[in-house]
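INFO  loader      accepted 1 record
INFO  loader      residues=242
INFO  predictor   begin
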Amino acid sequence: MTMKLVSFFLVLLAPLLTSCLPLILPVDCSDIYHNDNSRPSGVYTIYPIGATSAVQVYCDMVSEGGRWTVFQRRMDGTVNFYRGWDQYKTGFGIAAGEYWLGLESLYHLTLRRKYELLVDMEDFGGKKVFARYSSFSIDPESYGYKLHVSGFTNGGAGDSLISRHNGMKFSTFDKDQDTWGGNCARLHMGAFWHGACHYTNPNGIYLWGADRTVFAVSVSWYSWKGHDYSLKSISMKIRPVQ
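INFO  predictor   done
INFO  writer      dumping tokens
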């Protein structure tokens, strides 16, 4: 058999040979880390729902041991977070900057594995603190993407999630699922797992430090800076519990 014929048959067989090989796609940043633990923090592609669900995320490979998949990040006010239900479901922004991963992707992540949550934040004076939770998950859309969070560890920020937001459905200005008579997402200009209404508003209006012009509409974490201090940065990230 000539080399030309061998090459021809190899071309024909290539798809069959490739299809027999196991295709391992990273579900989250922890998978990326375990495949190569020398990888730096940055933007990577993950597949939270399957092979057709490629999304870009920022992977934090440094904080508290690394391996964190960032699903929410505010840092400079360049992205508008006052958006409706459909965009919070599918995600928006860019992984290299400010973005929201998407409730559907987040649900599928927490469906497949048990996760912990880290919330990192910084004020305009350069002080950095965090809040950590040993358990984090959300329900499917049919249950309003209800939040389940517990196991608080204080990193200087205090707890602004469990008492007011645990067990709450996700609300946007065009889909009110909070426990208040009005619409918390509309009143406080930020979609979130609101109760009646919030102790944190990470998806609120990006301002610059203390601002009492309109009550409790900024990017805030009440147990650290109160309702009327807009944080310089905040990011919410998850990783599998070992």
